[in-house]
Amino acid sequence: MQAVMTDIYLDANATTPTLPNAVDAACCTMQEQYGNPSSSHCAGLRARAMMETTREHARRVLGGAPGGRILFTSGATEAIQTAVLSALSAHAGKRFANPARADEIRADEIRAEPIRAEPIRAEPIRAEPIRNLLLYGSTEHKAVPESMRHWNQILHTGCEIVAIPVDQQGQHDLAFLAAHAGRAVLVSTMAVNNETGVISDLAAVEVIMRQHPDTLWLVDGVQALGKQDIELAKTRIDYFPLSGHKLYAPKGIGMLYVREHAPFTPLTAGGGQESGLRSGTENMAGIAGFGVILAELIEPTGMFCDLAALHRYRDQLVAALLEAFPGVVFNTPFERSVPTTINFSVPGFASKELLDLFDAAGIRVSSGSACGGSKATRSYVLDAMGLAAWRSESAVRLSFGRAWNDEQCTAACRRIVESGSALRNACLFTEAASQRNDFDGVLQMKHDGACTWLLIERSAALCVIIDPIAELGERIERYIRCQDLRIVAVLDTHSHADHASSRVELLTHLKAHVLDATSTADGLGWPDAASETPLDTLAFGHYQLRRLPLPGHTADSVAYILNDLRMTGRPRQVFVGDTVLSGGIGRSNFACSSSEAMYRSLRLLANEVGTDALLCAAHDYNHEFATTLAVESRSNPLLADVLADVPMSEADFVSVKKQIDATLNDASGSIMMCGAVRCSGDERSASVEFTPAGLRQYLQQHPDATLVDVREAYECAMGSKLGLLDERHALAVPLSRLTDAAPAWLAAPDKALVFFCRSGNRSSLATQFMRRLGHPNAFHLRGGLALFS
Question: Which of 371, 451, 482, 757 is catalytic?
Answer without folding.
Answer: 371
